[in-house]
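Problem statement: downstream parser choked on a complex file, so we are re-checking the raw output for the calcium ion run. The parser issue turned out to be on our end (a line-ending mismatch), but while we're here, posting the original submission so the record is complete.
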Amino acid sequence: MKHLLLITSMMCAAASVFAGTHSVMSPDGRIELSFSNDGGMPVYAVSVDGRDLISPSALGVVASNWKYSTVGDVTVARDSHDETWQQPWGENKMCLNRYNEMTVALPDGQMSLRFRAFNDGVAFRYELNAPVDTLVITDELTCFKFATDGESWAIPANFETYELEYRNLPLSDVPDANTPFTFRTDADVFGSVHEAALYDYPEMVLRRDSVSGALKSDLAPLPDGVKAYVLGQFTTPWRTIQIGDKAVDLINSALILNLNEPSRIADTSWIRPQKYVGIWWGMHLGTQTWTMGPRHGATTENAVKYIDFAVDNNLQGVLFEGWNEGWENWGGNQHFDYMKAYADFDIDYVADYARKRGIELWMHDETGGNIPEFEAVLDSAFAYYASLGVHTVKTGYAGGFKGGYFHHSQYGVRHYQRVVETAAKYNIMIDAHEPIKETGIRRTWPNMMTREGARGMEWNAWSEGNSADYLCTLPFVRLLSGPMDYTPGIFDINYERAKADPGRIEWNGPNGHCRIKTTLARQIANWVIIYSPLQMAADQIENYEGKEAFKFFRDFDADCDWSEALQGEIGKYIVVARRSGDRFFVGAGTNSEGRSLNLELSFLKSGVKYEAEIYSDVAGAPDKVEITRRVVTSADIINIDMAPTGGQAISFIPVR
Ligand code: NOJ
Ligand code: CA
């Protein structure tokens, strides 16, 4: 009854709704984020250098058992923030978090909107204060109405998977999209729409609204059609728009991390970046199996070989997929045993051997989407792994969730978070495949190291694969959200070893035509370009043994102090530099066109001489790499020549 009265009074009182515009400027005064009222509908707008980027666009949350009032005056509070904070690991250990804030409380105090304007973008979120125990959220009204047309890059909206090809569409033609949704307007503003701090709420995708013509938020539903059940006092994830003058500005922005809360893990000394190898690629190529049998990959014998290889090559971790019982059920009833190793994988021996050799043994938990069974044993399985000295778990969700839940629904978000928090209790780091999108929660839960969440290397084994154009789009879209376990670095790019195997299985579809769609140098460069604190050399170790080019990965460090995307155009090319301690690494990559670039070395420490080891393409021989060395300083310029689908990787090691 109260609910009904409220709606009636709103309709009658349209004339007395709050008036006026309230805005907040970025610290450099270039970006303005404003809030106003459009006939009873709260709206926001964004301008850059005085030019409209987002025209007045709807704001609001709809619940079936609650309605806030827009009648009367709003209360506006202001704040500002300027802090540099440190993370245990990340592209940049130090992050500058500087913004101006405006909080607008709607007239009845039942909802506030918190707006933040940074030099690299804007964000806002809803803070709900409803007088009910449980809110039944049925829609979110947030719209993004672009003031000009432009170009966009994103995968289509999908509540089940992010392993989709990018679409490059005019802004005005986008029917739907997932986030990050990256754009360049006709006024030459670069930006990306995403979300930050996604907890206990479904993911947001964008869908063209037939009435307003804007891209409107759409939340992944639960099986009953409701979007989320939340407490009456609830704060939604941030809705974010990163903004820059150049495409690479988006990569260099820490906006998503800055919108997350500081770490909830006090002692982070056990959280350590790693380079790793694993029994993995053979299964995707179809020469090994996850299941026990003559081609089983995760055997004790192979484990020892991989551990020894890791020791000899300055790597820290090893992963063995197919170590546990249940793989016969993958794609069937999805029953896995998370505690029981196959008989030919002596887990106590392997764990002991890894520990003695100083190597981190990873566990792999493929769930096939069987969440109830995984959750039932989660605590005891992680306690067991911890007892073996394991600090890293790769999870997987390749299969539909039981009960008709979408991967990206509130149910999924809750599950993925439960895994991260349970893992933290046992000092375990997580690498999630088929995950929920990254929204910067690694700041708050720094054991949430990396995740998949896009087409990774595996697609090259059994599909048309990932093109060089795709790889030049990835850094400007998916990677804006955070680290990715792409599993880079295949050296046998034509799969010669697999093709020579007469018993090769056609796993996951025909694989005879498959191969890596880039040059070898680009495979090496991807270790730098695609940031992951757990960075894999994904090929079988036989393909690295005796290869001089593997030195790059031996020298490389998965731990990083500083990063900068130096040059790039979306879908065309990318150049990234990183520093780990006193070493620098550069990765450059191009799309299907060959390209020549000049790289100024001004990012190097001045006054220091470095030996630059340069891994370049060889014209006409994509499977070859040329390695040259020269001594350089920060005053030098290196010419980067890349073949079509090629790249270049450079390590800079101080000359002592
Ligand atoms: C898909 C994952 O992305 C891949 O890395 C893994 O090997 C398979 N699922 C099996 O779990
Ligand atoms: Ca996958």
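For whoever reads this later: The longest strand covers residues 121-140.
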